[in-house]
Amino acid sequence: MRFFYFYNMKIEDLHKLYLAHGLVDTDTRKIRNNTIFFALKGENFNGNSFAGEAIAKGASYAVIDEEKYATSDKIILVENVLETLQQLANYHRNYLKLPVIALTGSNGKTTTKELINAVLSTKYKTTATIGNLNNHIGVPLTLLSMKRNTEIGIVEMGANHQKEIAFLSEIASPDYGYITNFGSAHLEGFGSLEGVVKGKSELYDFLKKHSKKVFVNPNDEKQVEITNCMDVIYFSKEVKFINANPLIELSYNNQEIKSNLIGKYNFTNIAAAITIGEYFNVSVEEIKNAIESYIPSNNRSQIIKTKSNKIILDAYNANPTSMKAAIESFEALNGEYKTIILGDMFELGEYSSEEHQKIVDLVESKNFDDVILVGENFYKTKTSSKKIKSFQDLSDYLKSNQIEDSTILVKGSRGMALERVVEFC
């Protein structure tokens, strides 16, 4: 005999089961006791077929949407697993009634999110997006990781096409929002820079509709213009840039803060975190300690010293805006032999050739000692710089042409995985 729940299980009933068990997951490899497994589908897998395995590994329940896999009374059959996960996350977020800060933008989302979390967690019990789990699955999982004792939620939202931020905003129902910037990222999906502005501003549209607050950089004229009829909290006037050579130093309320972040472009990310901390009454001393203690990881603005070189590893991702900022920041470093290794930028669609050539032209207008361009797109550009088609070719080149006594900027899109360069430098 088979026992299972049918379509008529209400979200509030599923939420009661969730509260009783406390964990959700979509990957059977991570199953723990008291987990509710959501059997999501992808292009190359069907999570329904793993429901039995999840139960065998200790999951309390498995949520599926194909009846043939409903083989025990621990199986919950729903019409659509993904939609159920999203509905449950929104229900849980409203159940907790805690303040939620949402952030999006073309560049710096994850670093800014980590800085905000570092600052706010000195005073509050926070729950923030882990890594960059910022899509239609990651946002629900972030919301469901928030517990009864969570005091502030911090949700990162990513998007590569219109209406995605609007959809994620409906799920997360944020009380506060921050957009890092509007840049030339995901042009293939958004269609143009204007499309990026429209897509990212869907967060503002939600907040305005629900009379919520936004944090805004007063030096970003476009964002000031878009938010002029909203409830705006501008960056603290007490935050002042000192220098970035290579690590950013700034002052806040007459306190000098020495960060572990490279590049002047990261100053805005720090200023946002300080402003949000100030709004939530975090003390100057706690803000200072949080910023100075934050050490970037995961190939974002990391400084790595090898036997022969100092590497500025910023290879988590890249788009024309972030690439330009990294190059200009690297140029500003004082008196060192400088090598720059750039990898292809992805998701640029019809703009790809133009944007890669612009980066090449920018690099050639500088005075770097050595330039290496890696990838099919950079290989097609017109340049006198060294061009290499693949990472394998790059590794072969570096083995035969070792770089020594140099400061090296490594920047490229995630698909290029240029962090592997460290092994050869």
Your description of this structure?
The protein is an alpha/beta fold. The protein folds into three domains: 69 residues, 3-Layer(aba) Sandwich (Udp-n-acetylmuramoylalanyl-d-glutamate--2,6- Diaminopimelate Ligase, Chain: A, domain 1), CATH 3.40.1390.10; 196 residues, UDP-N-acetylmuramoyl-L-alanine:D-glutamate ligase (3-Layer(aba) Sandwich); 123 residues, Protein-Tyrosine Phosphatase, Chain A. It is built from 16 helices and 19 strands. The strands form four sheets. Strands 6-7-5-8-9-10 form a six-stranded parallel beta sheet, sandwiched between helices. Strand 9, helix 10 and strand 10 form a beta-alpha-beta unit. Helix 13 runs parallel beside helix 14. The N terminus is likely disordered.
What key phrases describe this protein's structure?
425 residues; alpha/beta; Udp-n-acetylmuramoylalanyl-d-glutamate--2,6- Diaminopimelate Ligase, Chain: A, domain 1; UDP-N-acetylmuramoyl-L-alanine:D-glutamate ligase; Protein-Tyrosine Phosphatase, Chain A; 3 domains; six-stranded parallel beta sheet; six-stranded mixed beta sheet; 16 helices; 19 strands; 36% helix; disordered N terminus
